[in-house]
Amino acid sequence: MAIVPDTGTIWERAFATRAGSNEEGSLAAILALAGATDIISFAGGFPDPETFPGRDLSDIFERLMTSGDPSVLQYAPVAGLPGPRDFMAGRLEQLEGARPAEDELIITSGTIEAIELVSKSLIDPGDLVLVEGPTYLGAIMAFESYEANVVAVPMDEHGVNVERLDEVVARLGPPKLFYSIPDYQNPAGITLSEERRRALVDVARKHGFLIVEDVAYRELGFAGERLTSLWTLAPDVVLQAGTFSKTFVPGVRLGWGAGPKEIVAKMVWAKQNTDQCSGALGQRLLEEYGRAGGLDQQAIRSRTLYGRRCGLLMDALDAHMPESVTWTRPAGGFFSWLSLPEGNDGIELARRSVAEGVAIVPGAPFFPESGGAQNVRLSFSRVPDASIDEGIERLASLITPTKGSN
Ligand SMILES: Cc1ncc(COP(=O)(O)O)c(C=O)c1O
Q: Suppose 231 and one of 189, 238, 368, 374 were both cysteines; which one would form an S-S bond, judging by CB atoms 3.0 to 4.6 Å apart?
C-alpha cells in the first residue's frame, strides 16, 4: 500500500522564509471578521457602501461600452492610461498645490500595491524600515514579506515623535524608508502636527532616506481641513501613496504613487511582473466620474457620514466606558484607539467580545515587535448608527476597571 505523504509537512518545508506564518492577527482574519453580518463590527477599515455611487457608475459604464474606445477593456500601460494619469495629476495639483511630472506618477492597484512596489524596489533582507508605532498592519506585513527589519518609533497625540526618530536613525543608521500615515492615522486616529511634518522632512533630508506618506484617509477630515502634505513639503524625499478605496470604491482597486522620479521608475519596473497594469476599466470609470465632479461630491457626503458616526462613537464611549479607559478623538478617518486599564488584555478582550456579538481588533498586530497589548482599535466607518451605542455598552461590560474607578 502506498504511504500517503503528510502534505502539510511538505508544504511547511517548501515555504519561503518571507511567506511567514499565518498568524491570527493577519489582515485576512480581520477582513473575515469585518465581513460578518450577525455581529456589530468595529473591526475592518471598510468604507460604508452607502457612499458608493452605483447609479453614476452604471451610467458611465454604459457610455464607455458604447463609445467604441477599445482601451477601456484592453491591457493598459504599466504606469496607467494617459487620461486617468492626467486626471490624477490634475487632482493632486488641485488638492496639494503641486502637479507631479510625467515620470513622477504611477497608477497602482490600491495603496497596498504602492507599498508592495516600493518594498520590492528598495528592501533587501535585513534592511531597516521604520514605521510609526502603532501602524497599518498591511504595511508591516508587506515590509516583513521582503524580510525587512521593521522597527517602530513611538507616537503621542501629535503624531510620531520626530526627535525619537532622529535618535533611532543616529543609532541604527538611515533606514531604507520611513512609513508614515500623517492624517487620521490607522489605527490610532491621530494626525501629525504641522510643526512635526516640517521637522520630519528635515530629518529625512539630513540623514538621506525616503518617507513613504500613506494618505489613505487624508480627504476624510470631518471639517474638510488639510494640513500640508509631506509630499508638498519635500517632493525630493517623499513618495506619496494614495488610494481611491475610501473616497470612491475599493472594488476598482486603484491608487497612486507620486514622488522622486528615480523611485517611481523602479516601481514601474516592479509592477511589470506583479499585475503588469491596473485595470483599464476601473481607471476610466474613475476618470469620468472624477472629471464630472463626482469625487468632490462624494467626499462631502462621506465626511458627513463618518463625522456623524465618530460623534456617536465618542458619545457611547463617554457614556459607557469605565473612567480608567482612554481613547483618541479623531478629527477624520475611520478609527479610534482605546487604551485599557491594567489587568486587561486586548487579544483576550477581542475574543470575549466576539462571543458577545461585537468585533474589535486587538492592538498588538499593529506593532512590528512588542506593544499594543493593552490597546484595541475601533472602526466606526461601517457600523450602522443605531448599533454603535449598543455595541459599546456590550464591550464596556467586558472591561475590568482599575480599582477605585467606576
Ligand atoms: C493606512 C492604510 N493604507 C492603505 C490601505 C489599503 O488601501 P488600498 O485599498 O488602496 O490598498 C488601508 C486600508 O485599510 C489603510 O488603512
A: 238
**Maximum CA pair distance of the chain?**
73
Q: Are residues 187 and 335 in contact, defined by beta-carbon separation less than 8 angstroms?
A: yes
Query: How is residue 332 annotated by DSSP?
Result: B
What single-letter DSSP state applies at residue 357? T
CA of 338 from ligand 1 middle (Å) equals 21
Three-state DSSP at 330 gives coil
Residue 160 gets the label, from left (phi > 0), alpha (psi -120 to 50) or beta, of beta
Between helices 294-320 and 385-396, what is the axis angle to 10°?
Answer: 30
Q: Is 180 in the pocket of ligand 1 (CB under 6 A)?
A: no
pLDDT score of 9: 83
pLDDT level of residue 25 (50, 70, 90 thresholds): low
Helix, strand, or coil here: 129? strand
**Atom 16 of ligand 1, residue of closest alpha carbon:** 186
Q: pLDDT tens-digit profile of 62-79?
A: 999 999 999 999 999 999
186: Cβ below 6 Å to ligand 1? yes
Q: Using CA of residue 150, residue 117, residue 176, residue 337, what is the dihedral sign? A: negative
Q: What is the pLDDT of residue 37?
A: 66
Class of domain 68-295: alpha beta
Say if CB 322 and CB 341 are below 8 A apart. Answer: yes
Taking residues 77-93, report their average pLDDT. 98
Question: What distance in Å separates the CA atoms of residue 184 and residue 363, rounded to the nearest whole number?
Answer: 17
- CA 16 to ligand 1 center in whole angstroms: 25
Which pLDDT band holds residue 12 (cuts at 50, 70, 90)? Answer: confident
pTM: 0.95
Strand partners, 326: 339
Q: 181 in ligand 1 pocket by Cβ < 6 Å?
A: yes
CA distance 136 to 115: 11
Atom of ligand 1 nearest to the CA of 246: 9
By alpha-carbon position, which residue is closest to atom 7 of ligand 1? 111
Contact 131, 368 (CB under 8 A): yes
| Domain chopping of the chain, boundaries | 7-52+300-396, 68-295
